[in-house]
Amino acid sequence: MSDPRMIWRKSLNYVMLSLTGVAAFGVVSILFLVLGYLFWNGGRSLSWNFFTQLPKPVGETGGGMANAIVGSLKLLMLAAVMGLPVGLLTGVYLAEFGGKTFSFVIRYTTDLLNGVPSIVIGIFAYSLVVLPVKHFSALAGGVALGMMVIPITVRSTEEFLRAVPGSLREGAMALGASKWKTIVTVVLPAASGGILTGMLLALARVAGETAPLLFTALGNRFWSPGFEQPTASLPVMIYTYAIAPYDDWHRQAWAAGLVLLGLVLVANLGARLLLNRGSAVRST
Amino acid sequence: MSAAATTIAHEVPPQAGPRAFLRRLRSGDEIAHLITLTFAALILLITSMLLYELWVNSHLSRAKFGWMFFWTRVWDPNFDNFGAAPFIYGTLVTSAVALCLAVPLGLASAIFLSELAPRKVSDVISFLIDLLAAVPSVIYGLLGIFIVVPLMRTTIGPALIHTLGNVPYLGALFHGPNYGVGFLTAGIVLAIMVVPFIISVSREVLLTVPREQREAALAMGATRWESTWKVVVPWARTGIMGSVFLALARALGETMAVTMVIGNAPTIAASLLSPGDTIASIIASQFTEASGDLYLSSLIELGLVLFLITFILNGLARILIVATGRGGGRPA
Amino acid sequence: MRKRLLLVLLALGLAGLAVAQGGTVLLNAAGATFPTPIYSKWFDVYHSAHPNVQINYQSIGSGGGIRQLQAGTVDFGASDGPMSDEQLSQSKFKILHFPTVLGAVVPTYNIAGVSGELNFTQKALAGIYLGTITKWDDTEIAKANAGVKLPNADIVVIHRSEGSGTTYIWTDFLGKVSEDWKKKVGNAAASVNWPAGLGGKGNEGVTGLVKQTPNAIGYIELIYAVQNNIPYGKVQNAAGNFVKADLAGVTAAAAADAKNIPDDFRVSITNAPGPKVYPISSFTWLLIPAQIQDAAKREAIKDFLKWMLTEGQKYNEGLTYAQLPKDLIAKETKAISLIQ
To answer: Does B76 lie at the interface with C, CB-CB under 8 angstroms?
Structure first.
């Protein structure tokens, strides 16, 4: 039928639907652009030196980011030690023990903490850890990152614990296990795949955080022994080198960006694979 | 299944078995309860301490400037006169630009992924877009400096000035010197950063719309697009709004990528091509060197303001997303 | 498998906990970006010569150096703007200033077609930064540069986004040569309310911005312009001559005021009198607490200062900083004993 209104509607249909497809592929191509550019520029600048050497004095070429890589790993470890247990146990509380109002309060507060801009967390960690001790330190950076890890871990732990079927719990209890024993021996292992995934994703998320480290871990041109000294980290080095005028520093910033992104993406991919393959329990 | 807060399932007759053993079992539960409760309370402690520190450490500037702080356009460390207006302006403008770009793009993509694409393709693309959300912000900043800024300066900026710059009223947004850095550049980078959030939440929300709604519309003769736009999307309206608020909250708090491309000039200017500053970026730039207690207090007060804004937005987002029937938020 | 993973993580954790080897002195310092190239060179060389002393210097800007020193989070600071009397009196502990090198702040620019040196009158620089001179072919600039084709383009003014000693030196100079500047913007300070322009973070950030932005002008320490091969202009000095920043000009500036250097070493040598003087020269200082509790740190700092005044000075000229005048070095060496 050549009813003009019908033709209009049909063409509109076609155009709009195509546009949505264009939009989706546009977004995906941005991803490939991001990855591609990083791989191209970063790949060219990666070298053995980058991974093993310390930064050279300002203006001299060469040098690497060995201390920043180690520093980032150290910070992640601190964040994990401080944030993951809190997140895990809170998740257990919310899923297994929680009373109605208190659980609501905790969930709300967790969401609140999640929404705090990372720079504000940096301010907090500065006044909490750096000022009293009169020291910039990796510990302060770890505290800041740890605080950011908590809400993500709480959410995913609770979600995966809840997804464990009631039948598993009841079965254990019917066999005479007490509540905590049920949780430890049955529920947690059943949800472990998802929980570990959540933890991995939380760490991947904070690995790239820069702002909170600016006033806590500061930076270090040398190795940073222990946890009480300032330490270099990949994101802060990327920032410092990117805004500087030296071409050699720009190249190193690309390389660092590639390494950082590689770490984050591998963690994300790994987590999702674990999730899809691992647990027999599916989340919503 | 929600685990009810009950204790052991079976009754324990007081005379039965070794009482000590049973008591140990019982207290085991209590201990577990207590331990997890303590850790949960730790979060309360952290958050209240955070608020407390922000409040207390900003009292100097709150006392001196009061409400005028929000209107003062001057940021003068030399004369000890501080005002939040340029930063609130910058934060709002960059976020607004980001949303103007990200919402249409994100919603369109979400529609494509939920309505049109075959499930497998949709899952793969969703997965890729989630990866985009995982990219650290400093890397967006890196790309911003070396790709977007030169592009703005050489191509996009002049193009905008020559075309839209001459339109009355709208033209005020696109005039003046074109540095490459500025509100628009920051907005573009932010848009790329928040689009994955809009897409992933909107897609999920759209997928929960009952089939009957679509089918009813189609049965009445609507085209695919009409059924989507006029029935499905409105049904998921609140959830989509929630995703927008989530994206907004993320954009407001974003620090690094913005600091690297906004130009660091605390000004209020109509033109989007002008350099500016946001709350997060001025704190990042000046916190470690705020010599002078009023200076530092003003920066912390800015942090408090930002915290409150994101708090309200996140709260709204949550309400909206939950209201669509989708339980709980997702880890951002 | 999981147990093994946990054990590996535990091992890594303990390794990370490894306390510094006995005898290593770790010093943290922060401050000016103006002297960062020479400081990072010095600390690197000093570390090679004294492997048990590690001085971690973070260039966050002079304002940061002063602030963090006062907060006690760093062992010493660095600033190109000496602390004011007010700042010193507000400080909880006594702070000593030790000049380290002499440097120059140069106006650098990025103008298509102009690769040579431009002459900047004092009025031109003040006007540009006040925002009253907006185009490159403005008469004030053009009249000093006969024969140079200046474009009719907007000047992109670039300044520092954070508290900076380089800004202190620059505003000190502008305040001396322009009444308008002094009235509108105020006295020399590390952080001002800029009438115009974009902000870059650190000398590095400003250099980066100027390099990438056509028609930009910025003020940076000489070495940044040299290391990055960007043109910088001559500035008109108090005697009316256009002088290009170099070691001779900076040394002349210091010499002109040699007799007036006070005992605490805080002095401004911008716009010094003399025909060959480069007018935007300055000392830069290390800010050392007068009392240092930790004996190992105290000795390390004192030793470094002695090294800096003797061996260290040899590296200055290679990085286009001028050496300190001989009698100043003598005075400083005596002042080191003030550190208790």
So the answer is: yes
Q: What is the pLDDT of residues C189-203, one digit of tens each?
A: 888 888 888 888 888
Look up residue A282 and give its DSSP letter. Answer: P
The phi, psi pair for C158, rounded to 5°, reads -125, 130
The fold adopted by the segment(s) A50-277 is MetI-like fold (1.10.3720)
- Under DSSP, the state recorded for C232 is B
Which residue's entry shows tokens 């191209």? A40
Strand partners, C59: C31
E strands, A80-228, are: none
Pick B265's closest partner by Cβ from C60, C70, C197: C197
Residues 244-263 of chain B with CB under 8 A from chain A are: 249, 252-256, 260
How far, in Å, are A104, B48, B87, B189 from residue B99 at the CA level?
Answer: 31, 31, 18, 11
Q: Which of C116, C102, C117, C136 is nearest to C215 (CA)?
A: C136
**Which residues in C lie closer than 8 A to residue B77 (C-beta atoms)?**
163, 189-193
For chain A, the distance separating the N- and C-terminal CA atoms, rounded to the nearest angstrom, is: 45
Tens digits of residue pLDDT in A141-200: 999 999 999 998 998 898 888 888 888 888 888 888 888 888 888 888 888 888 888 888
For chain A, the residue count is: 284
pLDDT tens by residue, B3-51 = 444 555 555 555 555 666 566 556 677 888 888 888 989 999 999 999 9
Beta bridge partners of C235: C120, C243
Among A183, A179, A176, which Cα is nearest to B12's? A176
- Interface contacts A/C by beta carbons within 8 Å: 90
The mean pLDDT of C128-152, rounded to a whole number, is: 90
CB contact under 8 A, B77 and C156: no
Say if CB B82 and CB B294 are below 8 A apart.
yes
Got the DSSP string for B246-272?
Answer: HHHHHHHH--HHHHHHS-------S-T
When scoring C198, C211, C217 by the number of chain B Cβ atoms within 10 A, the one with the most, hence best to mutate, is C198
| Residue C38 contacts residue A100 (beta carbons within 8 Å) | no
Mean pLDDT lowest among A47-56, B294-303, C37-46: A47-56
For residue B187, is pLDDT > 90?
yes
C244-282 pLDDT tens trace: 998 888 888 888 877 778 888 888 888 888 899 999 999
ipTM, 2 dp: 0.85
Distance CA B258, CA A117 (A): 13
Quick check: B217 and B98 in contact, CB under 8 A? no
Q: Show the CA angle centred on residue C159, arms to residues A221 and C63, nearest 5°.
A: 50
Q: Is C182 helix (H, G, I), strand (E, B) or coil?
A: helix
Cα–Cα distance measured from residue B28 to residue B201, given in angstroms and rounded to the nearest whole number:
41
Whole-angstrom distance, CA of residue B115 vs CA of residue A20: 10
The pLDDT of residue C161: 83
DSSP-assigned letters across all residues of A63-122 = B--HHHHHHHHHHHHHHHHHHHHHHHHHHHIIIII--HHHHHHHHHHHHHHHHS-HHHHH
Helix (H, G, I), strand (E, B) or coil at C234: strand
Q: Give residue C268's pLDDT.
A: 87
pTM of model > 0.90: no
Asked if B291 has any chain C CB less than 8 Å from its own CB, the reply is: yes
Q: How far apart are CA A86 and CA A151, in angstroms?
A: 9
Distance CA C334, CA A134 (A): 30
